[in-house]
Amino acid sequence: MPPAAFIQRANVLYSEYGVKEMKEYAAKYRLPLILGPLFKILEVFFDLLVPAIMNSVIDIGIANGDKPYITSHIILIIALGLTGFICTAIAQFFAARAGVGVASEIRSRLFAHIQSLSEKEMDQFSYSSLNSRLTNDTYQVQNGLNLAIRLLVRSPFIVFGAFFMAWRLSPRLSLIFIVMILILLVIVSAITLLTIPMYGQVQKQLDSVMARLKDNLTGVRILRAFNRQKEEISQFEQVTQGQLQAQKRVAFIANLLNPLTYALVNVAIILIIHFGAIQISAGQLSTGNLIALYNYLSQILIELIKLVNLIIVINRSLASYRRIQQVINTPNSLPLCSQLPQTAAGSPALEFRNVSFRYPSSAADTLEDISFSLSPGQCLGIIGATGSGKSTIADLIARHYDVTAGQILLNGADIRDYPLEELHQRISLVYQKASLFSGTVRSNLLTARGDASEAQMISALKDAQVFDSIDGDLDRSVSQSGTNFSGGQRQRLTIAQAFLRNADILILDDATSALDFKTESLIREKLAESRQTLIIISQRVSNMISADAILVLDNGRAVGLGSHRQLLASCPVYQETCASQQAEEVA
């Protein structure tokens, strides 16, 4: 490979495996990362002394019948063992601290980066995959780092230290050690090259299992309602069988290391005993030397087995870390600004200028040439059939995606010129599917406005017609996703968050679909009193009769814009919608 190509490839690997980022993660844990291997090296030193002392005990103490010599050296061996144990305990403490700490840094960095990504990137990775990378992959990195600190220094030091000590005793027999180590390096390298990509596939397959699991758990009520448990169990078994087969393939190859290592080392032991016996008979080697050589070879055997298992774990950790880096190295596709734009006095609160939008994976536009403007304090209704692009308009206003063509203006300035944090401060968006977090009613309200007083929270709950429903208890427990509340209560609690937020623009995306007409009417009255610029997205004509203007969508196109009466007279699509809901009586 030419030097330039080699350097380029090295730079790519440096970036893919996040070497620079790993240095940043490890910066806080420099001391444990140094002390852990240091105490392991001390342990290695004590372990390597034991066979040499045993050699002296056999050749001097036992050969001469010197009991005091034997006793003193046995005490020394015990002392070395205890000292090595203390060093091991200290090293493992620092290894655990560094491993957990670095994994925590990685997890925090990954979570923060995920929060900064746009919906485009979230769709690219999928929520299940991101969940798997945050949990399982970071654990694999933690486990790999922990074992690396404990064994990556110890095992090579033991192997080469034992070889050096064996060379001092018998250079000729030590050649067996060299051959064994070289053959093992070839075997380990080959299996490593095969298993690294396979571990990546295993983790990817785990994403599929997580996705299927999430679908089943979130849709458990629907599955039971349609009696689909057996079918879903069968499909889940198919996914897990795929994961099992992937695990088996990589485990079969990775597990070849242990038997090959045992076979190789046992052959070396047979050769050493055979040729050692010949040398003892010729007077070239003592019995103590042969036993010391055997002990050193046993140490090498144990450490090679540990090293082989460590390599398997590290391969899996590297595959997981690479998956984490794929997310971290993915930039937000939305251009971000840090300065507030210049706004023009008297401009519309919100304006769409020839806006078109296409989802990244779509072959056709979801919205095409949409234009309208909304003055401060006005109310716009958006209506259309399912799939006509109503919710997409809400996502574009909140800048979850950027428009494909055209402009969206907020107070006369393009929303792409606003810092995202500032833009989201000015817009409140309430979806049909209410999202509540585990905690209390109070904590959920504070997510909308962190500095809200209790009086403001009570007022918001009353405006959303939910205060009496929860018995006025701000500290009432909320389970994950608000499953201990009815659908109507969840919707009203999220509307209460919007009232509390009191943003410039409030968007209700079918946010009252679970409410009865009386409650919905009371909430609309409170919305009218708030004088916020309001966008109501709904399929109910009754929700938007009083709106200042109604935008009618059909397959992503604007087919009507005007008041209720104007659209009844001029827009066939709106006329059909009203007829289907018998809304003419309301008119």
Summarize the structure.
This protein has 587 residues and is of the alpha/beta class. The chain has helices at residues 3-16, 19-26, 30-64, 67-116, 119-125, 127-152, 154-169, 171-218, 220-225, 229-254, 257-281, 287-328, 390-397, 420-426, 441-448, 454-463, 487-501, 517-530, 564-570, 572-580, and strands spanning 350-357, 367-374, 379-384, 405-410, 413-414, 427-430, 439-440, 477-478, 505-509, 533-537, 549-554, 557-562. It has a six-stranded mixed beta sheet, with helices on both faces. A four-stranded antiparallel beta sheet has the order 2-1-4-5, covered by helices on one side. Strands 7-8 form a two-stranded antiparallel sheet.
Helix content: 55-70%
**Share in β-strands:** 5-15%
Q: Going across the biggest sheet, name each strand in turn.
A: 6-9-10-3-11-12
The CATH topology label of the largest domain is ABC transporter transmembrane region fold
What is the terminal-to-terminal distance? 79 Å
Structure classification: alpha/beta
Query: What is the count of β-strands?
Result: 12
Kindly describe this structure:
The chain is of the alpha/beta class and 587 residues long. The protein has two domains: 12-326, ABC transporter transmembrane region fold, CATH 1.20.1560.10; 350-585, Rossmann fold. It has 20 helices and twelve strands. The chain has helices spanning 3-16, 19-26, 30-64, 67-116, 119-125, 127-152, 154-169, 171-218, 220-225, 229-254, 257-281, 287-328, 390-397, 420-426, 441-448, 454-463, 487-501, 517-530, 564-570, 572-580; strands at residues 350-357, 367-374, 379-384, 405-410, 413-414, 427-430, 439-440, 477-478, 505-509, 533-537, 549-554, 557-562. The chain has a six-stranded mixed beta sheet with strand order 6-9-10-3-11-12, with helices on both faces. The chain has a four-stranded antiparallel beta sheet with strand order 2-1-4-5, with helices on one face. Strand 4 (405-410) and strand 5 form a beta hairpin. The model is unreliable at 583-587 (pLDDT under 50).
